[in-house]
Amino acid sequence: MEYVDETWKHNPLPPKHPHGRANARFWANFVDEKVFKTASIAYLGKDKAQEDGIELFSQQLKMLEAELRGKDYFGGDSIGFVDIAAFFIMHVYGVVQEVKEAELMTREKFPVLFEWLAKLQANDLVMECLQPREKHLAHVRARLSVLDEAAAKTKAA
Asked: First CA to last CA across the chain, in angstroms?
């Protein structure tokens, strides 16, 4: 975060105020350390572990919604540090969800997050940072295929 802060002083991502910075670090860490790991289990786990992961993932997304409610972005009126961290999770696992034909994240379950996601997807600068959708889908399909093959070999052994 310090690198970003020092490099782009004219357009800071983390808040200037120490309390806001601490809050942004907390939520970015929550997304990175908790939500990302739980999403992996929810989408890729098996049996009871996956069931538990789905429940916890849903709870974590509800926590993110509560933090976002009433704001355009996690930091307020403009895209910030937490938005970038959370967008990565929502975008990547949105593609995984499409490939796996799962419905863990839906507009009906998480309307606030999906409204926020739509704002980010409408931003040309954000979208320029992403690889083309078809290429991303192909990559995820290939990665999931490798994981499925490895699981089948482990199960057969």
From this structure: 45
- The residues, ordered by sequence, that sit 6+ positions from 12 with a Cβ below 8 Å of its Cβ are 5
Q: Is the dihedral of CA 65, 48, 102, 85 positive or negative?
A: positive
Q: What is the pLDDT of residues 56-70, one digit of tens each?
A: 999 999 999 999 999
Report CA dihedral (80, 123, 68, 23) to the nearest 10 degrees.
Answer: -10
Cβ contacts of residue 133 below 8 Å, gap of 6+? 95
Three-class SS state of 13: coil
Closest CA relative to residue 45, chosen from 87, 95, 100, 109: 100
Domain regions of the chain by residue span: 2-130
Would you say how long the chain is, in residues?
157
pTM, full prediction: 0.84
Nearest to 94, CA basis, from 83, 86, 105? 105
Q: Name the CATH topology of 2-130.
A: Glutathione S-transferase Yfyf (Class Pi); Chain A, domain 2 (1.20.1050)
- How far apart are alpha carbons 90 and 43 in whole angstroms? 12
